[in-house]
Amino acid sequence: MTNTRFPDGFLWGGAIAANQAEGAWNVGGKGLSVADVATFKANVDVKNYAAHNAISRQVVEEAALDPTDGIYPKRRGIDFYHRYPEDIALFAEMGFKALRISIAWSRIFPNGEEQEPNMEGVEFYIGLLQEMRKHNIEPIVTLSHYEMPLALSLKYNGWVARPVVDCFVRFCNVCFDYFKPYVTYWLTFNEVDSICRHPFTTAGILPDCLTPGKEQQEIYQGLHHQLVASAMVTRDCHAKVPGSKVGCMLTKLTTYPHTCHPKDVELTLIKNLDNYFYADVQVFGEYPRLTLARWQREGIEVQMTPEDLEVLKQHTVDYVSFSYYMSMTESASNDVERTPGNTIVGVKNPYLESTDWGWQIDPVGLKISLIELYDRYRKPLMVVENGMGAKDTVVDGEIHDPYRIAYFKAHFEQMREAINMGVECLGYTSWGPIDIVSASTSQMSKRYGFIYVDQDDLGNGTLDRLRKDSFYWYQDVIRTNGESL
Question: CATH number of the domain that 428 lies in?
Answer without folding.
Answer: 3.20.20.80
